[in-house]
Structure formats: structure tokens, C-alpha cells
Amino acid sequence: MKSFITLAWRNIWRNKRRSAISIGSVLFAVLFAITADSFERGSYELMIRNMVKFSTGYIQIQDVLYDDEPSIDNLMLYDGSLHDIIDGFGERISYTVPRIQGFALAATDSKTRGVHVMGIDPESEERFNNLSENLTEGFFLTEDDNSVLLAEGLSEILGLGLGDTLVMIGQGFQGASASGMYPVKGIVRLSVPDMNNNTVYMPLAAAQWFYAADNRLSALIVMSENPRRTNKITRQLNEKLDSEWYAALPWQYLLEDLLRLMQLDRAGSQLIIYILYIVIGFGLFGTIVTMMLERIREFAMLMSLGMKRFQLAIVCQLEAIFMSFIGVIAGIMITFPFIYYFNRNPISLGGELAGMMDDYGFEAVLPTSIEPTIFMTQAITVFIIALLIGSYPAYKIYKLNLIHHSK
């Protein structure tokens, strides 16, 4: 076998132009496939990071009934035992964000509107999504405030400004009445239009008092120190939590609908990549056929000198393996610096698309992903295609008419 490997390696460099064409075909196939997949996955990763950062967090602990029925009656009790469980994870959990969410009827002297009430801990909420940076007027909430922040659109709809009083009426925990009057401390602009027209922020303690839900939360957002360990931490939380009352849910579950849309979109993109593979395959096949025709007399001469067909087929297959391997490695080495650069320095978008992304609070950039599976999957796929096509000379050797081509 050693002699076959040596012979195959020497044959590759015996005709450098021919080998360069084959290696170049594989190299560009790897380059195009990795680049296309990296930009697509980079866009998805950016979208997921934004949704996790501004909405769900990596993990949410809720009452077991809240996910199916997000009602004010299904708030969970946030007591010392739950706090101790969270503390038991130490540095694996970076911080937590407590929230209580509900609905109420907001009223002024002449207008009423249904609103989404968000009770927040100002300090942790600020760490989570930098909410104070979106203030257009007034001041951000503090823990002891008994005032509210109004979303910009809602303030315009109700005609309320700084210092005005917002009256809210609703239903509290387990049938208790909820009512209160709160001065407007600030106006905040939210990127999602529906939220901007309906959201009221209150300090957590004030919201718990409003809904008569002391020590209760809609959800406790848990931000893991290492996002890659989110699923492991979720499993460990569920093992320690009382499953009769609590459930820890990872972001993949909370964003399930978004992930399904991504999978559907990715299916269309994969079809384009498959077409790219077909084009690449035919191009490589044409190169191999051309080189095969150039070497017919060489093959016939070697067999005339006593070389067995299977031995010659092995040599040809080894040549295909070596050239494919060199092309794949070279493709990865050339592509990685390019992908890494745009991962650290994403392409800035312009025009209407950039404006639309800015309106929703997302960065108007097009990043790449450096997930290792991108390089492995695309490289292995192109390598297999090259091997299959490289098997053609071995097949032709068994069909070769020795007498005809020896003339």
C-alpha cells in the first residue's frame, strides 16, 4: 500500500497544471459553500441574540401553568427557597431579571385604552436591555418609585406627558381588584410598534402591590454566564425545582415559532446551496473527464507493462483523495480569515433595510458565523462529491480496451 501512496503522490505533481485545476475546483467549491452558509447562519445568530437580549433571556422560570395560560392568576411564588436554588448555581448564572406582566385599563379624563403592564426591577432590567437609553423624556425608574414609564406611542394616544397622572384599573391575583393612580416619570421609545403603543413600565414592588401579588412573578429570567451551557443549566434547574409548581424553559422553547420560521427559510437557502453543489460537481466532473482522456494511453501502457487493473484503480482513487483533501484544506485556510474578519467587523447595511432594522432595535449589520460545524459540514460534503467524481477514472480503467489504446 505504501508504494501505491507514493506513486499516487508523485503522479499528482508530475503534471502540475492538471492537478492545480482539480485542486482549484475543490478549493473554490469549499470557499463558496462555506461563505454562503456562514453569512446565512450569522444573520440567524444575530437575530437570536437580539431576541434573547431584549425579550426572553436564555432561561425563564415560570409557574407550570403559565406557559399554557399566561394569566395573572398563574403567577409563581418567588420565595427564599427559589432564591437559594438560583444562588446554588454560583458563577454559572450571571444574573437574573424578575418580571411581573399583566393587563389593565388605562384612563385619562377623556380616553381609555387597554395596556400591557410590565413590572420590572430597574437595576436588573437596565443590565438586561439598557432600557434607559431609549428614554426620550424624563427619568428612569428607581426601585422605590411609585410612578410609571409610558411607551412613547401610548403617551401620544392617551395625551399624557411628564408629571401627568395615569389611572389604571384591572384584575389582580386570584380575583383581587387592581386599581391605582401613578404619575408619569418618563417616556420611553420602544422599537416594536405594538409594544410602543401599549406598554406601561412600573417598579416591581409597585406592580406587585397593584396586582395584590406580593412575592410573585410572571417569570424570572436567568442569564447564564456561558450561553452554550444554557440547556445543561435548564436541565439542572428542573431537577432542583419542585416540578409541581415550577418549570425552567430554555430560549429554544420560548422562541420555538421563530426557530421554525428560520428552519423554513433555511430550507430554501439549502436548496440554493445544493444547486451550487450540482454546478460545482459538473464542473469538477468535466475537469476529471478531460484529464482522464489525456491519460488513456498512459493507463494502457502501465497495464501492458504488468500493472493490474485494480492496482491502477487504487492509485487513481488515491490521487483523487489527495487532490480533494488538499483542495478542502486550502479552501478552509483561505476562507477562515475572511469569515473571521467579517464576524468581528460585520458588513454595515444601508438604505430602507437598515432603517427598518434600526426601528426594531436591531443592529443594521450583516455578520458571519464562525461556528465550527459550518466548516466541517461544507468541507466534508465537497470532499465526498470530489471523491465520488474522482472514482470515475477507476471505473474507466476496468472498462479500458487495452489492445485498442495500446496502438
Descriptive report:
The protein folds into two domains: 2-53 and 258-406, no CATH class; 65-242, no CATH class. It is of the alpha+beta class and 407 residues long. The protein has a six-stranded mixed barrel. The chain has a two-stranded antiparallel ribbon with strand order 2-10. Strands 13-14 form a two-stranded antiparallel ribbon. The model has no long low-confidence stretch (mean pLDDT 83). The protein has helices at 2-14, 16-56, 80-87, 122-129, 152-158, 193-196, 204-210, 230-240, 251-254, 256-294, 296-304, 309-344, 351-359, 372-390, 392-399, 402-406, and strands at 59-63, 76-77, 93-107, 112-120, 135-138, 148-151, 165-171, 177-188, 199-203, 216-217, 219-224, 246-250, 347-348, 365-366. β3 (93-107) and β4 form a beta hairpin.
